[in-house]
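quick one, two chains, predict together pls
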Amino acid sequence: MTQEQILSCALDVGEQMLLCGAEVGRVETAIRFICNAYGCVRTDVFTITSSIVVSVMDREGNHCTQTRRITGTGTDLTKLHRLNDLSREICAKKPEPSYIRSRLHQICEKEPYPLWLQALGSALIAFSFAVFFGGSLIDGLVAAPLGLGLRYLTWLLQRSGMNQIFSNVVASFLLAISALLLTRSGIGQDVNKIIIGNIMLLIPGIALTNSLRDMISGDIMTGMLRFFDAVLVAAAIAAGYILAAQVLGGAA
Amino acid sequence: MNPFVQILMGGLGTLGFNVLFHLRGRKLLLATLGGVISWAVFLALEPLVPGEAMRYFLATAVVTVYGEILARVKKTPTTTFLVPSVIPLIPGGALYHTMNYALNKQWSAFAHQAFYTLQLALALAVGIIAITTLTRLITAARMKRKLRSSRHVYHHSIH
C-alpha cells in the first residue's frame, strides 16, 4: 500500500468518526494508530471539528500530507462503535485499501433510526423534560406533539440547506408561538415548562459541556470553536423566542 | 416534586436522546440506565452536599466511572455511555432561564444566571475530565506492568 493510500484510508475513517460525534482526541489517536500500523515512523495529526490535517513519514524519510475539510456534525453512537471496531481491525490485520473502503461503505450504508422514530424520541424528550422541570402532566402532553413536530421541522430546515443559526431562530420562533397559543387557548397550563421541555431538543447543552471538556484537556482550538458555536446557537434560540413574544404581545 | 417521578422523567428523557443518538439493543438500555443513575445520585446528595455545582460535579464523576467501566466491558468508545448518562444534568433549564432574563431585559439577573449556567457546565466538564484522566493513568500503569512482564507490545490498548 502506498503512503498516499494509507493516509487516504486513515483520513476516511477519521472523517467518518468526527462526523458521528467522536472527540477530536479519539480521532487523532485512531489516525495515528492506523498510519503507524502500516509502518509510518512518524505521524503528525491535527484535528479540529471542521478539519483534519495529517503528515506521515516512512522509513526512507518520504513525507506525505493530506487534509480534509469536515462539514456538518451529528451524533450516531452506533456508527461510532462500528468505526471504532473497524479501526481496531485495521491496526490488527492491516488489510488492503479496497477492503477498508468496502467496510466503510458498509458502515455508512447502514440505516440509522427512521425519521418517524426519531420524531417519537423527540416527543418523549419534550414530554419528560417538561415534567422533569416541574410542569404538570398536561404540560407534558402538550409539549410532546410540539417535540414531534420540531423534529420534522429541523429535518426540513436541514434539507433546505438553511444555515444553522438562522434555522435555529426559525425553529425556536415557531416553537414559542405554538406553545404560547396553546397556553392562551387554555390547553396548556405553564408555557415556560412546555417550552423548556422542547428547548432541551434545541439547546446546545451537550455542546457547551463538551467545549469546556475540550479546552480543559488541552484541545483549546476545538474547545473555542465549539464554545462560540454553542453560544451563537443559544443566542439564535433566544432571538426566535423573543421574536415570538414580541409578535404575540408581551412576555409569556 | 416527587423525586421518583423526576428520576423516571430524567430516564425517559435520556431514552429519547438515545434514540436520537441511534443507540441500539443492550447499549440503548445501559445508556438510559446511566441517565437514571446520574439524577438519582444528584438527588441523593442533596442533604449531604450543600453546593449545587458540587453536586453536579459529583454526580457527573459517578456516571463517568459507570461509562468508563461499561466502555471497557463493551469494547466501545467511552462517549457511547458518557454523553447519554449526563443528559439529565445538562444545564438546559439554567440556559433557558438565562434566556428569559434577556427577554425581560433584566440584565443583572441575566449576567448572574449566565455565569451560573457556565458554572454548572464547568462542574460537568471537570467531573468528566477528573475521572477520564484517572482512568488513563490507571490504564497506562497497568500497560507498563504488562509490558514489563511479557515484553510484548500491545498495539491498540489505547483504543
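Chain A has a mean pLDDT of 90.
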